[in-house]
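User: I'm new to structure prediction. If I give you an amino acid sequence, what do you actually give back? Let's try with this one:
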Amino acid sequence: MLLWIAVVIAVLWLLGLLGNIGGGLIHLLLVIAVVVLIFHFIRGRSRA
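Assistant: Good question. You get back a string of structure tokens that encode the predicted 3D arrangement of the chain. For your 48 residues, that looks like this:
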């Protein structure tokens, strides 16, 4: 589920970047997506 959230946030970031909308919010979305992805990979490895 975290992976899907990160993908959605990254897509919204890309659309905002291409549409030139949002300013700093666009970069905040990218940072959130990266943090969620890192959290997903760390959490996934601990289960194995």
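You can read the tokens as a compact description of the fold. Here is one thing that stands out. Residues 6 and 34 are 7 Å apart (CA to CA).
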